[in-house]
Amino acid sequence: MTSVPEKLEKPSRIEYYFDKFFQVVGISRMVGILTLLFVTWKSSQWKPNLPIIHLTGLYLPYFSATNSTVDGFWIGHIQLHNTQDNATIYYKQAVLQLYYKSELLSNTTTIRLFMQPSENVINVRVRFSTVGSETNGQDVRSINMERTRYGTLQFRIHLKAFLVLEYVPFPYIMTMQNLNVWCENVVVNVTGVAGTRNLVGPTIQCQ
């Protein structure tokens, strides 16, 4: 005798939508896990570089060193070069100071916050000043002797900045870096009239 197969019950509309819902959730979770793994891998491969800094000019409109005090006003030009093609740099905090040898001469100068796109060059104008800055007599004698003998003065500029570097293809991948460089052997002519008291020689890379 031939048996007749039982007729399968058709799933209800609710069960059907539940099945579809869990399928979508499962696929979404898998896509999320794969995306997270890919982003983690890209983050580990990304090795961002700090910007290249050059001092392109330093102008000295006024300078005086008498007894144990120094008065001066400097105008500097800093070039910031983001050489990377996959990173945006955010300068969250940047300060500069001007030294003679190891003696701090100027007030701390702050650069306003800004953003630098990839493969971009930005030129920043900065001002340094000091009024009645007290220094030891030995440095004042050294300043005046150097100015008389060579007609130049040699300074140092210190730049510190806190940077956030953002990976361009995935903006949520970012890293934080501290920039700490010195512009050494910054020689300025001090013998001519105010308009000629400029940086002597080529631009200086700060390291």
Brief characterization of the structure:
The chain has 207 residues and is of the alpha+beta class. The protein has two domains: 11-45; 52-206, Immunoglobulin-like.
What's the number of extended β-strand segments?
Answer: 10
The number of domains is 2
Largest sheet: 6 strands, antiparallel
CATH class of the largest domain: Mainly Beta
* CA-based gyration radius: 31 Å
How confident overall, as mean pLDDT? 84
In the CATH classification, which architecture of the largest domain applies?
Answer: Sandwich
Instruction: Classify the fold: give the CATH topology of the largest domain.
Output: Immunoglobulin-like
Count of individual helical segments: 2
What proportion of the residues form beta strands (DSSP E)? over 45%
Low-confidence stretches: none
Q: What is the helix/strand order?
A: HEEEEEEEHEEE
Helix content: 10-25%
The secondary-structure class comes to alpha+beta
Roughly how many Å apart are the termini? 96 Å
Query: Shape, please?
Result: rod-shaped
List keywords for this structure.
2 domains; 207 residues; Immunoglobulin-like; four-stranded antiparallel β-sheet; six-stranded antiparallel β-sheet; alpha+beta
Structure, described:
By secondary structure, the protein is an alpha+beta fold. The protein has two domains: 11-45; 52-206, Immunoglobulin-like (Sandwich), CATH 2.60.40. It is built from two helices and ten strands; from the N terminus they run H-E-E-E-E-E-E-E-H-E-E-E. It has helices at residues 13-45, 137-150, and strands at 52-66, 69-82, 87-100, 103-104, 109-111, 114-116, 120-134, 152-167, 174-189, 204-206. Strands 3, 4, 5, 6, 8 and 9 form a six-stranded antiparallel β-sheet that branches. Strand 1 and strand 2 form a beta hairpin. The model has no long low-confidence stretch (mean pLDDT 84).
